[in-house]
Amino acid sequence: MKTVLITGASRGIGAACAEAFAAKGYFTVINYNRSEERALSLSEKIKAAGGKCIAVQADVADRESVGRLVSLCRYHGGGIDVLINNAGIDFYGTFEQTDPAVWDKIIQTNLTGVYNVTYAALEEIKNSPCGRIINVSSVWGTYGASCEVAYSASKAAVAGFTKALAREIGPSGVTVNCIAPGFIQTEMNARFDEGAVRDVIYRTPLSRPGSPYDVANAALFLSSEEASFVTGQVLGVDGGFI
Ligand code: NAD
Question: Is-catalytic flag, 151?
Fold first, then answer.
């Protein structure tokens, strides 16, 4: 049985990935930071559907807790075959409102968090016969979002991280790819009013918001044997937005 570690998996895109991978027979490690109740309820749901999983608390920005997370993957899952670096936060405000504390928090979670988990998990992933790293970036990392400078910068950096690491560890057989979602209906976007949502949908050729399962399906593809020659890519799951 293969093991997948999904960061920030108690809700949204991470939770959809957890359900999708568990349904495909993966032992699924549901990482959460603060939302214990939701992580446990997702874990119960997966188990009730016949899946195997555990929920593990860790703040991706905290190296010590990430170390514990990876040890538990080894102990309960026998290693890590697929890592999905999904945990992320955003900040909506002008650049002038992006004070150093906000900047540091975004970068530590969205970029250093990807580094922390990948660094701690890499040996396990290299030991897998089909190791995969999937980082969740964003269309805003390519396009640039007004009033989301720190978020856009962190997500662009994740794409650069992905491409560089893919080149470096390609010879080990591990693939490293990025998914760049467009507008996906999750709680992260709950703050947008109706007009803003209408505007982004208008600019999306498929004329609808994405579902977290659209992203989960792309992650399943990148984890599959069929994608074994795909690495260093940024796969847009954005309804044609870019
Ligand atoms: P979400 O807010 O519902 O989920 C984010 C998850 O990350 C939450 O469960 C949160 O608790 C977790 N998290 C945050 N900080 C963490 C930390 N320090 N340690 C561990 N977990 C942490 O949002 P979502 O839309 O499901 O976002 C998932 C990913 O997709 C994020 O990286 C986000 O930037 C990216 N993304 C989302 C959209 C979108 O439109 N929703 C678009 C592009 C990219």
Answer: yes
Percent of the chain past pLDDT 90, that is, above it, reads 100
Query: What is the Cα–Cα distance from 102 to 194, expressed in whole angstroms?
Result: 26
Ligand 1 midpoint to CA 25 (Å): 24
Q: Are 51 and 44 in contact (CB under 8 A)?
A: no
With a 6 Å cutoff on the Cβ, whether 184 touches ligand 1 is yes
Contact 182, 210 (CB under 8 A): yes
Average pLDDT over residues 89-106: 98
Give the CATH number, domain containing residue 133: 3.40.50.720
Domain assignment present for residue 222? The answer is: yes
pLDDT of residue 194: 95
The chain-wide mean pLDDT, for the chain, equals 98
pLDDT of residue 103: 98
Full-prediction pTM beyond 0.90?
A: yes
Question: Among 191, 172, 175, which Cα is nearest to 183's?
Answer: 191
Q: Which of 115, 143, 151, 202 is catalytic?
A: 151
Structural domain for 84, as ranges = 3-237
Distance CA 70, CA 19 (A): 20
